Amino acid sequence: METHRRSSTNSVRSHKPARPIALEDDSTKASDALPLPLYLTNAVFFTLFFSAVYFLLCRWREKIRSSTPLHVVTFSEIVAILASVASFIYLLGFFGIDFVQSLVLRPTADVWATEDDEVESEVLLRNEDARHVPCGQALDRSIRSLQPPAPIVTAEKVFDEMPVTVMTEEDEEIIRSVVRGMTPSYSLESKLGDCKRAAAIRREALQRITGKSLSGLPLDGFDYESILGQCCEMPIGYVQIPVGIAGPLLLNGREYSVPMATTEGCLVASTNRGCKAIHLSGGATSVLLRDGMTRAPVVRFGTAKRAADLKLYLEDPENFETLACVFNRSSRFARLQSIKCAIAGKNLYLRFSCFTGDAMGMNMVSKGVQNVLDFLQTDFPDMDVIGISGNFCSDKKPAAVNWIEGRGKSVVCEAIINGDVVRKVLKTSVESLVELNMLKNLTGSAMAGALGGFNAHASNIVTAVYIATGQDPAQNVESSHCITMMEAVNGGKDLHVSVTMPSIEVGTVGGGTQLASQSACLNLLGVKGASKESPGANSILLATIVAGAVLAGELSLMSALAAGQLVKSHMKYNRSSKDVSKVTS
Ligand code: ADP
Predict the structure, then answer these.
(1) 408, 542 in Cβ contact below 8 A?
(2) 251-264: pLDDT as tens digits
(3) How many whole angstroms separate alpha carbon 245 and alpha carbon 260?
């Protein structure tokens, strides 16, 4: 188990940009190329220098006593002088340069003494709530300063290396027309029939209008046709987000490599450590509790009585079948599940819940709701539809209705982490984790009046996986609702850990999921596109993977906290010679 642990630890390290440099220094040094070990060479020159100086001093004392002129030297004295000068030059070169470098660079001793796990824990803690500074920045900067100078790649440099889109005379004319306001920027795609060219012209026009350079924002290397009318309007380029990989996550007996798009250093490494703990303990189990996307229009009547009439009508089981038929016409995948009503005076909120197959389902459910509202208008002509979304849905806002009733996929995921794994991989104890979970994730969150936030950092993992797999990242609000539970089991030896997430909103078709990069990440998980076996199977599997990754992330961060790294990390962080305020600003 120890061997396994070590190799995995190395894979964790490989995610950290600064670590490989430290590792290389540990294993291979430039001096390894020399025939003699460095300490032996130093010892030889030290001895030579002091012996030669001692010999010369003795000789000179004798010469003074015997009144012999000092400049009259014997062969042995010449050899001693040469030896002392040569060894002095060697020693000056060796220690002098090191001394001067240390005065200029001042590497903190504890940077080099820092243990890997401490660094990892330290950065996880800093990343928990606010990541104003990339993790381990103080460390990175010190370490970086001791590396051989690397070529500096500026934004301009990156731009220079990209294929340049050539502008023709005609393009130039269109740019001028956009700058003058004669051609609307949004109409370029339809006018030119070439999305890439439209983006290039819009971008150039924007640079001229604003006088600001966009050289760091790439234009080439993206399929602009693929986002037309679906993902993004008026494109001028694309933002690059690195994708890291955590895993393998052993979930329901299968291994998954989880792609995470993030710019938060150490988030992937943290999740990876959690995956390792889960894997070594036999894996996690994840169960889907409920699957239904919701949309809640708000309608108004002349009186509260009329609003109540509609409520009773909708809640009558005899009417449900008819309404479901009307609703389900919106898509061959849509299946109406329930309509939950809430009244506020004359206003009625109708929360439709529907199965949406492999689609996240917002479009599908909205179409179905529109069908039902049109149908109801016959029996309730006095119904005034105020909005197809009345916020009782509730989309992209923290709301108790999602936390209690669920939205999208409701999933519970659990694992029993072996006590040895808790000690060796997570560097803490079962009791510490259980106590911390109770005081932080349960009591602490209750004290803060949390709504669905009974966890350490579920949203970190949810958002990174969402961006990588083309989900709507704004839905991380409710998708990150999560209660993390920890309990000592098997006589207090092992840890039972679970995450319960009532509103994971994911899809594997529609939206950003069909774009090349996002689609590749879905493919990696084996959930790309519509499931051939059973509609909805891919999106359900993706939701369970999200919950599994959250479980891993919770385990790792909670362990870092329980291991008491907080004070240590702050001590180190505050003692750094770098001015962090300058870095953050
Ligand atoms: P959303 O409703 O999540 O916004 P879209 O409406 O953009 O998603 O995408 C869903 C589309 O994908 C629908 O037109 C639907 O007919 C189609 N589709 C194909 N296969 C499936 C599937 N297995 N599950 C759900 N939708 C599917």
Answers:
(1) no
(2) 999 999 999 999 99
(3) 6
Q: Give me 212's structure tokens.
A: 């600001």
Q: Which residues pair with 339 in a beta bridge?
A: 352
Looking at ligand 1, which residue's alpha carbon is closest to its atom 11? 510
What's the pLDDT band for 350 if we cut at 50, 70, 90? very high
φ/ψ of 266, rounded to 5, equals: 80, -10
- Whether residue 395 is predicted with pLDDT greater than 80 in this model: the reply is yes
- Cβ neighbors of 275 (< 8 A, separation 6 or more) are 246, 247, 248, 249, 250, 258, 549, 552
One-letter amino acid of 449? G
Among 407, 386, 369, residue whose Cα is nearest residue 301: 386
Is 472 in the active site? yes
Residue 283 Cβ < 6 Å to ligand 1: no
Q: Mind listing the pLDDT tens digit for each residue in 295-307?
A: 999 999 999 999 9
CA of 537 to the centre of ligand 1 (A): 13
Q: Tell me the whole-structure pTM to 2 decimals.
A: 0.73
Please tell me if the CB atom of residue 408 comes closer than 6 angstroms to any atom of ligand 1.
no
| pLDDT given for residue 555 in this prediction | 98
Confidence class for position 583, pLDDT limits 50, 70, 90: very low
Ligand 1 pocket test: pick from 330, 364, 534, 540 the residue with the most ligand atoms within 8 Å of its Cβ: 364
Residue 544 in tokens: 């369970």
291, 556 in Cβ contact below 8 A?
no
Residues recorded for the chain: 585
Residue 267, both tokens:
């988030």
pLDDT tens for residues 133-175?
A: 333 332 233 333 333 333 333 333 334 444 456 789 999 999 9
CA–CA distance from 67 to each of 59, 61, 198, 271, 386 (Å)? Answer: 12, 10, 96, 81, 117
| CA 1 – CA 118 distance, rounded (Å) | 21
Residue 515 φ then ψ, to 5°: -70, 150
> Distance from the CA of 324 to the center of ligand 1, in angstroms?
18
Q: Which of 122, 140, 264, 358 is catalytic?
A: 264
Tell me what the mean pLDDT of segment 459-478 comes to. 98
Choosing from 367, 396, 424, 440, the catalytic residue is 396
Contact 521, 243 (CB under 8 A): yes
Catalytic residue, candidates 4, 132, 397, 570 = 570
Cα separation, 471 vs 461, in Å, equals 13
Asked if 71 is an active-site residue, the reply is no
Coil, helix or strand at residue 95: helix
* Residue 227 or 163, more confident: 227
CA 472 to each of CA 360, 388, 506, 540: distance values in angstroms, whole numbers, following the listed order: 9, 20, 8, 16
φ, ψ of residue 316 to 5 degrees: the values are -75, 120
> Which protein residue's CA is at the shortest distance from atom 4 of ligand 1?
363
Q: Note the pLDDT tens digit of each residue in 31-72.
A: 444 556 667 777 888 888 888 888 888 888 888 888 888 778
